[in-house]
Design a protein that fits this description.
The complex is a heterodimer of chains A (249) and B (260). With 249 residues, chain A is an all-alpha fold. Chain A contains 11 helices and no strands. In chain A, helix 4 runs parallel beside helix 7, helix 4 runs parallel beside helix 11 and helix 7 runs antiparallel to helix 9. With 260 residues, chain B is an alpha/beta fold. Chain B has one domain: Rossmann fold. Chain B contains 9 helices and 10 strands. In chain B, the strands form 2 sheets. In chain B, strands 6-7-8-3-9-10 form a 6-stranded mixed sheet, with helices on both faces. A 4-stranded antiparallel sheet of chain B has the order 2-1-4-5, with helices on one face. Classes of the chains: A mainly alpha (249), B alpha/beta (260). At the A-B interface, helix 8 and helix 9 of A face strand 6 and helix 3 of B. Chain A: Belongs to the binding-protein-dependent transport system permease family. Chain A: This is Phosphonate ABC transporter, permease protein PhnE.
């Protein structure tokens, strides 16, 4: 046991050392960057309030991407969650579906968004598709776990009373899993909204587009205004999410 | 009188178990009778009841319930499932649903598939459910959520759900194991009374010989997966009952002292 602990510590220390030694980390550059950082910050303040229209427009688009992407993910996740649940289907079906979901989760969102921008062009549509696709990998897994986590006894009771599989899903499984599904869906919506904020950087719509535009054109005061809006939005979403999750606890 | 359940030379072992849960069991239960299954834990009572409910496969022998022959390789056809009602030991209720919804769940097997899915009850369904709630003394709890009820109230909901099925055979797995003696008497009186009123057959398992005597016309004693005795209640031999629980531990025959 002690040997195992020592080995684990040695591996961790080795990984840190390897990263430090082989990565080109020159702390002196960080010191010399001080004036430049001060210059950026100086140019950011005061934030330019004239971009309020762009902020409102970008925030609304980000919100729409998150909402539509989340709806798409829920629509895809309901059937896939059922098919990934060992309570509902045979191992021959749920195992390949789980593998498929793991594969979907493994593809980074930004990569999906870039591919979608290439496929369908700039704007919110590639963002919505990317969010729906990426979130399904996690949400369908959560839904399957919610189905499998319910008490089996009421399901057996309804089966004994002659209820069919869909009636059992509706009246024995759903009432038990509903709070978990609501909590997980709200959590996923929060993640979707956070992720939508940066999708604009690759041209997939939303407020991120303005951040990218203002930074690239050295309009740091405008970028600062957009960044403040993003921070406010994230804090607001988190507060709403915490309140809702407490309700479903 | 026709048989509500008939079993011939039945044996069954749970997957992976070294010993059989039931061994060469034969019995016939006439329609309308109230029968108690008595025996210590591990005697095979729950297995026998689950098998009669059509929930177990892989057995050997012959089984027929309410005139339908069971086959060891498949569950009985769904249309005949509602005719057999089951009261589960741990109630098996949907905790977050209301009492009314739980009792309505007992009607699902009698509804057309689409109505079962939507849960929309017909006027007849509601009449049956209201009667079951009233018979179990829980009509005033209909809108309460199950997770806000006491153990005794939950037990009544479980019985009401079973009665809402309009079963011709009622199977109950230790329906009073978690209740004090006064409550246990009440619940068994309710169960056997409701079965009698509906002309249904009742088969319940119990650890309590005194309650079995009070509420059953016939008592079947089981031990180690076999039937040890099968007698009318009036002929129950106290020594045979005591033998049933011999070496079975102090908690296996609650109320045994009352018979001795």
């Amino acid at each position: 046991m002690r040997l195992g602990g020592f080995a684990a510590n040695a591996v961790i220390a080795g990984a840190i050392l390897w990263s430090l030694v082989t990565t080109d980390v020159e702390l002196s550059r960080l010191v010399s960057a001080g004036p430049r950082i001060a210059d950026f910050l100086g140019r950011m303040f005061p934030p330019d309030p004239t971009v309020m229209r762009e902020i409102v427009k970008g925030s609304a688009e980000t919100l729409r991407i998150a909402i539509l992407g989340s709806v798409g993910a829920v629509v895809l996740s309901v059937p896939l969650g059922i098919l990934a649940s060992e309570t509902m289907v045979a191992p021959a079906l749920f195992r390949p579906v789980r593998t498929l979901l793991a594969f979907v989760r493994a593809i980074p969102l930004i990569l999906v968004a870039m591919l979608m921008v290439g496929a369908v062009g700039l704007g919110p549509l590639p963002g919505i598709i990317a969010i729906a696709f990426h979130a399904t990998g996690m949400l369908a897994k959560f839904y399957a776990e919610a189905i499998d986590g319910v008490s089996r006894a009421p399901i057996a009771a309804l089966e004994s009373a002659g209820a069919g599989p869909l009636a059992r899903l509706r009246h024995a499984i759903w009432p038990q899993m509903a709070p978990v599904v609501a909590r997980d869906t709200i959590f996923r919506f929060e993640l979707n909204l956070r992720e939508s904020l940066i999708l604009g950087i690759v041209g997939a719509g939303g407020i991120g587009f303005y951040i990218q535009t203002y930074v690239r054109s050295f309009q740091y005061d405008k970028a600062a205004s957009v960044t403040i809006a993003v921070v406010v939005m994230v804090i607001a979403i988190e507060a709403v999410n915490v309140a809702l999750r407490r309700r479903f606890a | 009188m026709s048989a509500a359940a008939r079993i011939d030379d039945l044996s069954f072992a749970h997957p992976g178990a070294a010993l059989p849960a039931l061994e060469r069991v034969s019995l016939s239960i006439p329609s309308g009778e109230s029968v108690a299954l008595l025996g210590p834990s591990g005697a095979g009572k729950t297995t026998l009841l689950a098998l009669l409910d059509g929930r177990l496969q892989g057995w050997r022998g012959r089984v027929s319930v309410l005139g339908t022959a069971f086959y060891p390789d498949r569950a009985p056809p769904r249309p005949c499932r509602p005719d057999t009602g089951f009261v589960f030991q741990e109630f098996a209720l949907v905790e977050r649903s209301t009492v009314l919804r739980n009792v309505l769940n007992g009607r699902l097997g009698r509804m057309p598939p689409l109505r079962a899915l939507s849960g929309q009850a017909s006027a007849h369904d509601m009449t049956v459910v209201r009667a079951a709630l009233a018979d179990c003394g829980i009509a005033d709890l209909a809108e309460r959520r199950v997770d806000s009820l006491s153990g005794g109230q939950r037990q009544r909901v479980a019985i009401a759900r079973c009665l809402a099925q309009e079963p011709r055979l009622i199977l109950a797995d230790e329906p009073v194991s978690n209740l004090d003696p006064a409550r246990a008497g009440e619940i068994l009186s309710l169960l056997t009374g409701a079965a009698r009123m509906r002309g249904a057959t009742a088969l319940f398992s119990s650890h309590q010989p005194d309650l079995a005597r009070r509420f059953a016309q016939r008592i079947i004693g089981m031990r180690n997966g076999r039937i040890v005795f099968d007698v009318p209640t009036s002929e129950l031999d106290e020594d045979a009952t005591a033998d049933l629980y011999r070496d079975a531990g102090p908690m296996s025959g609650i109320g045994l002292r009352a018979v001795r």
